[in-house]
Every structure is written in C-alpha cells, then in structure tokens.
Amino acid sequence: MNTATPVNSYSWSNPVLKVKEEVEISVFDDGNEQPCYLITMNGRQWKVSETIYYILFSMDGQRTVEELQEFLHDRYSLRISKQKLEQVIELTLVRNGILEGTIATTEPPHNKMMWGKFTLLRPSVIAKLKIFIFLFHKKTLTGLSSLAVIWLAYILFAYSNTQVIGSMFSLGIKDIALCVFFIFATGLIHEFGHSIAAMSYGVAPGRIGVGVYFVMPVMFSDVTRIWRIKRHQRVIVDLAGMYLQCVFLMLSFLFNALFLHSHLLNIAILLSGFTILGNFNPFIKFDGYWVLVDYLGITEVKTVIYQLWANLFYKVLGRPAVPVLLSKGKKAVMYIYSLLTVCFFASFIRFLVESWILAFHNLSHDITALLKLTPSQVNISFAEAVRYLSDRITTYIALFFFLNLVWRFMVKKVLLQIKKKRTRVPEEVRCAVD
Hints:
Strand content: 5-15%
Number of strands: 6
Radius of gyration: 27 Å
Oligomer: single chain
Order of helices and strands: EEEHHHEHHHHEEHHHHHHH
C-alpha cells in the first residue's frame, strides 16, 4: 500500500523553537519610519516587520511557544495569542524552512520572463576585479560620472541613432561582426560595474551571465546580496553598470578621435553609447527599474500598486482600506508609475504580437523557399549565411519566446495536473496520515 508524508510538517509539541544557524538578520533600509529587517539564508532573502524580527531574535533554542509568548510580552510589550503566534511562525518561518527541523516548501522567486540563462563568469573570477573599487571612491565617482554624463549628452545631440545603425549595416560582414563583439565587450564592462560597486560596499558579487529577457538578448550580474546595504548605496550599485560603461566609452571615443581615427570603432562606440539609454527604462527590470525600487525603498512593486488601487475602490465602497506604509509623495509616484506602466506594456504587447506575426510569416516563407530548392541550387556563401542569420535573429528569438510561453503557461501546467492525478494518494491513506 502507498504511504505519504507531508512535505513539511512541524510539531508544536516540540520543547523548544530554534532558528537555523545559517540564518542572518540585518536592518533593511526602505526609507520608511517603521523599521523592518532582512532575513538571509542560503542565498534567499525575506523582508520582515519589526514584530517578526522580535520573534526571531527571541528564539534562543531554549523557549517553548508559551515561554516565547510570555517573553515577547515582558520584553517588547507584544500581546500575541498563542494561536496567532503559531500562525505567524508557520507562515513566515516554517514554510520557508527557517526553523530547525523544517524544510522550505516555498520556491525562490525568479523572473519568469528571463530565460535561456548561461553563466559567463563565476563569482570567484569576478572577485579579482576588486582592485578597481577605487573607481567608486566618492571624489573619483563624482568626477568621472559628471564627465560621462556630459559626453553622453554630447553624442545624443551630435549623432543620430538611426544614421549610426544605418552606417553599421552598410559595413561588410567582418566589420559588423567586429561591431557586435565590441558592443558585447562593453556590455560585459557594464556588468563589471555592478559587481565592482557591490564589492566597494563589502558585498560579495554573484555570477555574470547572458540570457533572453522577453525577446531581447541581455547580460546580467547577480547582485542580489545588496539588499542588506543602505538604500543610497543600492542606487549607486544600480547605476554603476551604466557609469563604468559610459566612462570606458568616453575614454575610447577620445582615444579614437585623437590617435586612431577609425570610422568602424566610432560606429561601435556610438552604438554602445545609445544602448545605455535603454537601461534607464523603469517599466521592465533593467537598471532604471531597480533605481526606482531602491530609491523608493519598495521591494514588492506589484503588490503595492495593487493595494493602492484596491484602497481607492474600498474607499468608494465604504470599506476600510489596507494600510500601505508609504508617504504621500511615494504613493503619488506609484500611481503615476502604474498608469505609465500600463501604457508601456500595451505598446510592448502590440510589438510582441507584431513580432510573432512577422516571425511566423518569415518562417513560412523560408520553409516554402527551402522546399522549392533543388540540390543543384543550394550554393550559399558563408557571408550570405551570416547575413541571413543576422536578418532572422529577431525572428528566431520571438519564436523561441512564444514557444517558451506556451510550454510554461499551458503544456507544463497540464502535465503537472496529469502527474498529480496519477500520484494522488487514496482517500483512506490521506485520512490516516492526517
């Protein structure tokens, strides 16, 4: 007969409550008057209230639930019923595997729109870049960033993005490949900026890699650990990629203008410079988004936006609103941001649909043309093959993204439901387990 055991169970008859040794607790800076804290364990992090902090801090491995309840009342004047205390511990500590004798039943959050991740550099390699943290000393940072902003403003007014892109595509295959390689290299320098800035504040860097965000090839730097540093420091880490990339491009631009006089290098520098502007986009999880999040001190943007608009409807219906611990200024920013986000994604969804339609049209055209070819007609040079792939790269990424969405939100869910039905525990066994 089949037997079953709960994935995670906790017996409240245990004599003592103890937090796992690997758990770290630190103050979290969100810019609000109400203090909150950050729990860190095995690469996962949780923002918790002062009450949860008191509960965690009071678990010394010697107190039972009843003794913990009494201690919280005597030490912190917290009146919590035993049932409520057990509920809080169950929801926040047991389910996340923070207490000794428990296993996490919650999944780490991840960006569902980021796929195809591949690691380029491990943290041990990136740590060697610590020698460059002088670039983030206050005076150096202020001076170089000011010059970089002036240079960026200059190229925006002096050059046309459309004309520069057109100039690149008028080049030969070899020169286009060199441009792409240079842009990739400056993208890597961009990610170095985030990692070096994190190290300048004593935070160990994570990996650097590549992936696809929606339908866009991107690079990323894992700086998740910066949640434990101050808010203005997190903003600097968020901006550090654009800062270092811009400084490198500015120096390259000046060196080329003074000594090399290379038209090809000038095109590559300008194209890479224009990509910096895209990183300011606050509506998708680029650098601009994280600057907004860290500046406002908001970790759950979607939850906050939902609650703010829900409170407006509650007010109309005469129902009590759910408290949102934000100043009036921050609430106004979030209202405006939410409306602009809707406009942005409406435009972006239109772009995605048009991309998918074009992708299916291109695929259909290519298959039809391929079927009509005879073996004697197949005579494609390497340069023609490269140009074809460069023309179709967006098509293939759009198709892969579409198939990924179908797999993740349709096929995978159906397969999981089928698996659950096949492995369903018989009623009498489940009753016995309970």
